[in-house]
Design goal:
Number of strands: 0
Radius of gyration: 18 Å
Largest sheet: none
Shape: globular
Order of helices and strands: HHHHHHHHHHHHH
Number of helices: 13
Distance between the termini: 29 Å
Length: 245
């Protein structure tokens, strides 16, 4: 599964159709808006996963039940809690309001919809995406791992867990080459089972390193856009994030 797969799933498609009906749009317009936002949401998720602090915030959003309920209820209107959670999550993923404005303007130009319409759609689309990630993580047996790491993030212990799993070879907050989940977490995952850690042996915080590896591998795949993204689009989105970080 990836972000596009989530939005094209029966639940994701139903949620987009419901959103379209509530906003007076066609299903095709809602799909176009979602497709125009997927590359930025993917880039934001991968950027946010470059250090334990921002990764902890993403894990917190993934364990917010409002998102999963929003995804699984399909075309039903989202709860006020889901909309609020979606706004918070979009802010975390995109980083700040200026980035969000630029991404909304870019999506508006690509779809012919107004930036205000895209802005209204962004929280719900973000919520559906995160709810789908959580739902499929749970189906893959990784729900417990998400919960454990989210609790560690809330207590300030996520950095210690990741650092402990690294075996002291690399700082948990320093990205490895490649960036994103392919960078810091890629280096982390490559080291989790090295040193004194073995598959099935509890790591720091009593968390099984093998489970963390499998869970992060799954997250890394699910954070991918799942749609063709040209180099020009990637560069444009990257410049937006870099300019307003």
């Amino acid at each position: 599964m990836n972000l596009n797969d989530i939005l094209q799933s029966p639940q994701g498609s139903a949620a987009l159709n419901g959103l379209a009906a509530r906003m007076g749009l066609t299903p095709e317009q809602a799909q176009a808006a979602a497709q125009s936002l997927i590359p930025a949401l993917s880039a934001g998720l991968q950027r946010a996963a470059q250090n334990p602090g921002s990764l902890g915030k993403i894990l917190g959003h993934l364990t917010d039940t409002a998102h999963q309920e929003n995804y699984e209820t399909g075309a039903a209107p989202p709860s006020p809690e889901a909309i609020t959670a979606g706004k918070d999550a979009a802010g975390t993923i995109l980083g700040n309001s200026r980035v969000a404005e630029q991404i909304e303007e870019r999506a508006a130009a690509a779809t012919g919809l107004s930036p205000d319409v895209i802005k209204s759609m962004l929280p719900e689309i973000t919520s559906v995406v995160l709810g789908g990630v959580t739902s499929h993580m749970q189906q893959g047996g990784m729900g417990g791992m998400l919960g454990q790491l989210a609790q560690a993030a809330q207590s300030g212990g996520l950095s210690n867990i990741l650092g402990g799993l690294l075996g002291g070879g690399q700082s948990a907050s320093a990205p490895a080459s490649g960036g994103g989940l392919g960078g810091m977490l890629g280096g982390l995952l490559g080291s989790i089972l090295g040193g004194n850690k073995t598959a099935g042996a509890p790591g720091a915080g009593g968390i099984d390193p093998a489970m963390v590896k499998a869970g992060m591998d799954m997250l890394g795949k699910m954070f991918q856009p799942g749609t063709p993204v040209s180099g020009d689009v990637q560069a444009e989105i990257g410049q937006i994030f870099s300019k307003h970080a």
